[in-house]
Amino acid sequence: MSEAREQILNTLRRGLKRGPVEGARRAGLEARLAHPPRNVIPARARRPHFEQRDLFVQMARNAAATVDPVNHPEEVPVAVSAFLDCEGLPLELVMAPDPELAALPWPEEPTLHIERRAALDGDKTTVSLAFAGIAETGTLVLLSGPHSPTTLNFLPDTHIVVLRADRIVGAYEDAWDLLRARGQRMPRTVNFITGPSRSADIEQTVQMGAHGPLRLHIVLVER
Amino acid sequence: MQVTSQTFKSNASAALRDAALQRALKNLKAGFPGKRAAAIAKLPEFDALRAAGRDLKDHTLEHLDFYLERFEAKVIEQGGQVHWARDAAEARHIVLDICRAVAARRVTKGKSMISEEIGLNEFLETHGIQPVETDLGEYIIQLRHEYPSHIIAPAIHLNRDQVADAFHAHHGPYGFTERNEEPRALMNEARQVLRQQFLSADVGITGANFCVAETGATVIVTNEGNGDLTQTLPRVHIVLASLEKMVPTLEDVSTLLRLLIRSATGQEITVYTTFSSGPRRPDDLDGPEQFHVVLLDNGRSGMLGGEFQDMLRCIRCSACMNHCPVYGAIGGHAYGWVYPGPMGSVLTPQLIGIDAAGQLPNASTFCGRCEEVCPVHIPLPKMMRHWREREFEQHRSPAAIRFGLGAWAFFAKRPALYRIATRFGAWLLRRLGGREGRIKHLLLAGGWTAWRDLPTPQGQTFQQQWAARRGARS
User: Fewer CB within 10 Å of terminal CB in chain A, N or C?
Assistant: First the structure.
């Protein structure tokens, strides 16, 4: 298929009335890729951090996620337990095999049955750890990896996501900066998730719970 | 798919008489424009973002060869493969070869207009591979053997009772024997039926809203989560993308996302925005084993440097059709091919030829609403005029139009004769209108008088009035 490739590139260059990009022009493009300039950032995404936390909660709730703030990481297991109870869900969790999640005091909730693996069909509730939250639209950022299988985000009926408040940023661009600052290669998949699954394909009426989770529950760890 | 753009006029007449379609189109008019306006009202920077979006798309198009090559290199670096396809046939064969190499029997699909453009479903079926659409709207129309009537709401031409009939006819084998008509229950049925398809598919095919040169990621936006199940569960993920989906960086994608979603559904952002690059990594617990991107040209490369280059800025939000009085009156199928509405009227003649699609650039009132709402400022009416000019130059316009324009030009080039003729015309029309001042039947204007009376001229011609006013002023 390299013949197709050459032909397409040649047609493009003929239209642009030039050969391959070279010299200073190429250096300019390389620099733009190496240090991506920001375009317009909405004012609401440029507020101070404590306001971003509130905006995140408000926007996530607008998108039909539920948000449960807890003060300390140690309170996450009891909050998850209470949520399952309250919603009448089975006390069974499939959890991302993430060390930060594993370090939480789950044994203090002995009635919870926890498996650490990727999701399978029939799993009711999964738990993931968010890499970041974006206040601008109440969006969670989840990264794929050995500690965070992607199927946990899509197969269950209920998806619980633990988010640390200090990981909330204002704009999408801030999340990219955070991701680049990890100093590792980009993950295979970056998932932006804003509320539970829905569709308006029948008569333009929004119905919740299309193919992904019917509920998105965020446990927000304030400190 | 069968192109029916040639018979646009009769398609449109049929659409206007279709009561079920007219009922369904009310949902479009009641929904999209209001939601878009409300979303934009909440973002004061929207106009600044539109300018930024236009500029960054222009920048990308000016260097499209560079960004395509970089994207390709990045995909390969992540362990994926890139396939270049000059036309629809080449793209279909690339997909078939990938499917055959893994002995695929069933393919799940996320929503992809490129798949419609290359007629992938029929092709896979004739080669013994079962394609299953998983976007709810696409699934409904696949069951009905139809094609999308809208680029983001493919089943917008249907009412719930038609969906209920389709499900009732097909879902018996899955244990759904009752006929449901509630949207909630219908969606639940689709969720359960399609879940089995996701789990048993060998290959997942998605489109791409963007391809990011910086990272080699392809981006899809969905509300249902079907695209993610499509690309995560099967062994092979194939992405279908056309050349102009290219965007330099994640920052640039962020700008376009802010424009795209508000212009499309009026949401702040879709539920799922997914950036994916390459197959699963050695330590990953899930994800596809193979990752392929098919880059489709199909006539787009020839648009660079010409009068239709700006059309390559299009991010397929559908705002132009959602605000178009013509689309709103007849729906998408009347346009006769994959892309309806104003963006389709510009793109379709380029992709399938002016022979087949010549009527589409004429399907416009030139009200300018499409350009007003376009998130990347594409001058759609101007480009439709370009096509009309080409059509006229190539002697393809209908004889009646050519005769009419010719006759008008004859008089317009002879001012004295023009003045006499228009005065005579105004006088004649007044006589024909009689005391009522209305004409009920008029030769050569039956299309008008069949539906409404023609009011008669009330006084002097425009030129007479103009001359009189100039005289009064000086």
Answer: C
